[in-house]
Amino acid sequence: MQDVPRKIDRRNFLRHGASAIAFGAATLALPMARAEEPKPVDDPMRVPGALPRPYGERSPFEKLTRLGGAGPGAPHGWGANAPNNFNSGTPIQDLHGIITPSPLHFERHHNGVPAIDPARHRLMIHGLVERPLIFTVKELQRLPSASRIAFLECSGNTWDGWREAQDVTVQDLYGLMSTSEWTGVKLSTLLEAVGVRREAKWMLAEGGDAAGLDRSVPLTDDVLNEAMICYGQNG
Asked: Is residue 8 a part of any domain in this protein?
């Protein structure tokens, strides 16, 4: 026995076709509506949250920022809140715990923040060594690594405290210090790889920015035991 096909007239076709189109449009609109950035609400327990992101972003309610301090080398009269090419101070008066969030870690600028591409960056060690070597970042990451929680402070911290009395915050005076977990290769590991000579007593560390900044560092036991060439920072 065969089913008898129903008669499809123009009115039924349009009615069912319009329902299908409406259902399809609603289905497509649902994920789009959920993906919209949620606006602040009185009760977040009653409103779906945002979709997960590939890389986390800070909460819209987080308002802490770094501020530029006058600091050493800054033009006279620049206030601590003025953007500049010299310092980025950590808001330590508003932080909790030991670790400084990475986006709030202080910076000391000598010629702006360099855009260093890890794929092209190189570390060269030469001088009083048996085997001068050039390391890529990938090669450094293949060496035995170490992680350490380290407190860093710029030598220019509290610079503004030597001037006339000012109505400033802790961030303005002491913001050039932060604490993070650093990961990298111990300096002693690299010096062993290049075969540093016994007569080597100092090293010249040169930065990778446009300032051409370098510093002489004595190769003391403390430096050899503590110093690291870092490629990772958590905070």
From this structure: no
Which 3 state secondary structure label does DSSP give 18?
A: helix
Buried/exposed code over 83-96 (b: 16+ C-beta within 10 A; e: otherwise)? ebebbbbbbbeebe
- Residue 49, in any domain of the structure: no
| Closest among 213, 92, 63 to 151, alpha carbons compared | 92
> Contact at 8 Å (CB) between 29 and 22?
no
- CATH of residue 101's domain is 3.90.420.10
Q: Where are the alpha helices (DSSP H) in the chain?
A: 10-35, 137-142, 170-174, 187-194, 221-226
| Residue 112 domain boundaries | 87-234
Please tell me whether residue 23 adopts helix, strand or coil conformation. helix
Of the candidates 77, 102, 97, 207, the one whose C-alpha atom is nearest the C-alpha of residue 88 is: 102
What's the number of domains the chain is made of? 1
Q: Which residue has the higher pLDDT, 167 or 49?
A: 49
What's the chain's length in residues? 235
Question: Does a structural domain hold residue 28?
Answer: no
Please answer whether residues 186 and 172 qualify as being in contact, where contact means their C-beta atoms are separated by less than 8 angstroms. Answer: no
DSSP 37: P
- pLDDT digit string (tens) for 152-208? 999 888 877 777 777 778 888 889 999 999 999 999 999 999 999 999 999 999 988
3-state SS record for 216-232:
EEECCHHHHHHCEEEEE
